[in-house]
Amino acid sequence: MACFFRRSIAAQLARICGAPEDVLVPLLSAVPVSKKQLSAQMTPDLRLVVNSLVKSGVLSPDADLQAQTERLTKELKVGGVVEEVVSGRGVINFRLNRRLLAEKVLEQLHTAPQGFGVQSELLRPLPRGRTLVEFSSPNIAKKFHAGHLRSTIIGNFIANLKEVLGNEVIRVNYLGDWGMQF
Question: Tell me, what's the pLDDT at 169?
Fold first, then answer.
């Protein structure tokens, strides 16, 4: 779903810059929720660092970076997918259409609820293999407490995540530290 929005923006950038879409999609990054501000100013959903276009050979390294940023921002069109495009210091910020985002999320939840969030083309190139997840390790000579549950839950979460991403997972709940405590 996130790739739908990235691909739409990358298609516009590809027409402007003349670079292939597949090169541009990974350069568009999501803005973490913790970085979003609760204020009247624009809160971006996706961000493009223009220097990454220079490093990937899409833009000329000789031209002024801020001038290139502003030129790209002016050429990018606001439409059905993107509500607002704003340039910053060497970055282009995109605010997505919230209604379309909600529709896409609900559509994906309805059609493939088990694969929601993990069937992304961004996750496909990740290496697959066998993973050993060891968790818990309670000291059986001491009283059992909530801290033991915490590490078990975290370990199980990591194992579930690796499994959903296509890895073969071996789970080991290791009981260690036998003996009398002094």
Answer: 94
